[in-house]
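Per reviewer request, we include the raw input and output of the structure prediction for the construct analysed in the revised manuscript.
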Amino acid sequence: MVLALVPTEAHLDPAEMAALVRRARMGETTAYERLYRLHVPPVYALCLRLCGDPGRAKECAQEVFVLAWQRLGSLQIDAAFAGWLRRIAVNVSLMALRSRGRLWSRESGSDVLDAVAAVTPRQGEPVGLRLDLERAIARLPDRARSVLVLHDIEGYSHEEIAAELEIATGTSKAHLHRARCSLREVLRG
């Protein structure tokens, strides 16, 4: 199951995007600014989903675009800019979580249950809207949220997630299962 919460591709045809990337690679700052403006919403959304905190997500998104500018020369000409940028965003966001020691803190099953209770909709709040799902994802424990976002939204395999988070493949699967169960509970209301 892959969730499509925010479009991840900019609204340019592939030839226009490739031309924009080529111009940015040659150092044209106006081209890079346009790439930034086209891609900052999905990059920020990804950072927010992984970090769970708007302030930290904003810092990560800024760092993503600084790193992308610095590394633009390493992007293969035929590679998809949006996919390359998402990979940088995942790495930056996970590094931010690691640097705060949050990915490595012990999490129990009750942490996920506490997260479910924390996002139960208030009286009169509509259930089933995208914002409810986003809010529920943001409240998951860091590891469960990271695995859910990487697997169900970004399409990573459990093996890739395990390598990225330095956990066992089975642990990735367990976190995904718990995160999905938590989301189902919340969205049922």
